[in-house]
Predict the 3D structure of the following.
Amino acid sequence: MADTPLLSVIDARSKILAALHTVPSETVPLSQALGRILAEDAIARRTQPPADLSAMDGYAVRAGDTANVPARLDVAGEAPAGGAYDGDLKAGEAVRIFTGAPLPRGADAIVIQEDTVREGKHVVVNEAAKPGDHVRATGLDFRTGDSGILHGTRLNHADIALAAAMNVCELKVARRPVIAFFSTGNELVRPGDEPGAHQIVSANNDGLAALISEAGGEPLDLGIARDEEADIRQTAERAKQADMLVTLGGASVGDHDLVQSALTPDGLDIEFWRVAMRPGKPLMFGALGELPMLGLPGNPVSALVCAVLYLKPAILRMQGGNPGPHFVMARLGREVPGNGAREDYMRAALDHIDGELSVATPFEKQDSSMLSTLSQAGCLIVRPPFADPAKPGEIVKILPLRA
């Protein structure tokens, strides 16, 4: 296995996504639907607007009566918001109308208030109207039976508002995939514990739990397994009801990297375990029996970069959404050297400029132990294998890390 060639990032991601299945759906109220992925189209239960409505305060008229201005019209009545004028609008008449009120029968335009002068029971129109002026036509937004929101959409605040307007109070969404995970290593302690000699505080579990939640999954933190095969097996056993198992560390072939040897007797079938990328070469994927299993590097920066590239798309894929990742282009903020054989993901600040491409400036220090730079990063700059040196202003591909 040590002689297995390194897999490309795109091939690794394709293999992971191809191995996954969509989780079942569930129906939730709108108050619980934010960030969920729609499992079926949301269908409008009403037409909006339900009638031709005024888009402005002013006067409902027959457009033909205003062809020659100024035009003096009789004010036949009023149509307040929440009310209506019940009669038919006759030639030479106007109806005082307010935003949101239905047009009287016979009216085909609105003259805005600013273009009129009221004279007792009459109104003088100073600007000619055309049919449809300032009218919100029936069904302008949607009609009964329309697919207002398509399945696979990750619901945001505007989607929730649209569903409510369509008179939909519940939505069928993908269940949140349960992602079980644990770290390995005798050197690790949880935040808040006092590290002993030669121990460090583990950042991986909490960071990964946050990423899983951001992607719409449900994190199941199994803690830290000791560098003992029995402890690794016992910890992995607790993940059987999850939709995916993720390990952090122990996936390489060193004397203390025990995940493969510990779990192979329990049915671990490895699809691949090395990827041509930096940071994150020791990335493992396979299945523990029927359970998809992703092995991330133990280095915190490598683990989180790989989680962005592989785990986040996997969680979205399991919910029936667009897995991404979604790369965009930016201008380089400073010179970078040529790249080696592995695809490089450089942590970078991202400055947005109105009307122009954003500027991605890689941090001078790219050490994969530095969580501070990952926290400060707005994006990852993607450097292809064997890329030539690049100068400031050149176009580069980036993966944004923040909304």
Q: What stands out?
A: The mean pLDDT is 94. Residues 300-318 form the longest helix (19 residues).
